[in-house]
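Posting this for the archive.
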Amino acid sequence: MTDITLYKGKFCLSTDKAKLDIDSIHQFLSTKAYWALNIPKDKVQTTIQNSLCFGVYIDEKQIGFAKIISDFSTIAYLGDVYILEEYRGIGLSKWLIETIMAHPDLQGLRRWILLTGDAHGLYRQFGWTDIAEPSKWMELYNKNVYSP
């Protein structure tokens, strides 16, 4: 896997898993992310171990995250994308998605997929569209899997 580390002013974006702040990621996902509320920390750790992860930092503090689940040949799922609220509106999410889409190990894929409830405008800037044939897609979804 090709590790990357980029800088934009005082911000750093890196795929180095050693830099990831698991506690910070878990805190955000389990309490602020509508798609992962109450997710147990061990689930966050497992998904990080099994994914290509992108962290966004300022002065070593983690302020953003995204993961890719992929076979690195035909398909990639983009998930758990966030920038902390106090750092939004300055282009970090665009930089994050741009960097993910340009990652050398994610080129030539037949399909990218993601789920979003509120960031369609961000992804459309990078060529994402609604599913062309939704009748072909199926899912097995347990909305309450992390509920106490």
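The radius of gyration is 15 Å. The chain has one domain: 5-136.
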